[in-house]
Amino acid sequence: MNEPMASLAGFLDRLKGEGRVVFRDAPRAGGSAADRAEASARLRMMFEDALMGMAGPPLRFDERSALDAAAWAERACWFLVSRGEPAEVVDRALRFPPPPRSASEHLSADLTFRYLPAVHRRARAIDPGDLLSSRLAEALRRWPLSGVLADLERGPTSPIDFDGHDGLLLLFAERWATHPKANWAPSTPSGRDWLEMVLDATGSARPYFLLEDDASRAGAASGPGPGPEARPSPGPRGSW
Prior knowledge:
Elements: H1 8-18, H2 33-51, H3 63-81, H4 87-93, H5 103-113, H6 116-126, H7 131-142, H8 144-147, H9 166-178, H10 189-202, H11 208-222
C-alpha cells in the first residue's frame, strides 16, 4: 500500500522499514518543530541501533548532522521522481550541509546517506549529466562512510580517517571490501590495517596500496635497500 508521506518522520519510517519511498507532494521546506522532533527521535533510535556491537568508544548522536542529512536525502529522492524541476530549484534545495568533522557526525549522517548510492545509480541511469546526478556524487564524495558504497570514478573529498574511531574504520573497511575502489584508500595506517584484516578474513585480494605498505614495512625491517621499482601489477587473484 503506497501511503503518501507528508513529513520527514514519515519519510524515515518508510526508508528504514522498506528501503523505498513514496511521494504525493514535495517535501516541506524546513518542516514544523513537531515533525523535526519526531524525525530526531527516529534518527536517534537508528543511531543507537547502528552503535550496537560497534567497536571503539561510544559515539554521541549528532542531531544537527542527522537531521540535515535526512532532509537532504528526502529532497534528493523527491527530485529523482520529480524530473521537471528547474535547475535553479534543484541547485538551491541541494546545497550541502557542513562536511563531517567528527566520528559522530560521520555516523549520524550515514543513517540516511547510506541509501544515497542507490538513488545515485538510478539518477545516473536516467541522466548521468544532470544536476541531480552531479550533486549526489559530490555529496557521496564528501561523506565517504556512505560514499564507499557508491559507483564513483573520483575519490572522496573528505579524509577517510573518521577521527580515528576504530568502529567506523572497520565499518568502512567492510564496505570497501564489497565495493573496492583503489582511489578510496583509508587515509591512516590504522585504517589500512583494518582493511587488511577484513580482506584477509574474507580471502579477498589485497589492493596495490596494501601491497606497497607491506613492501615498505619489509624494507624498513631489513634496513636500507632498493625499494620496489614499480607498483605491483594485478596478480592471479585479481589484486588491484
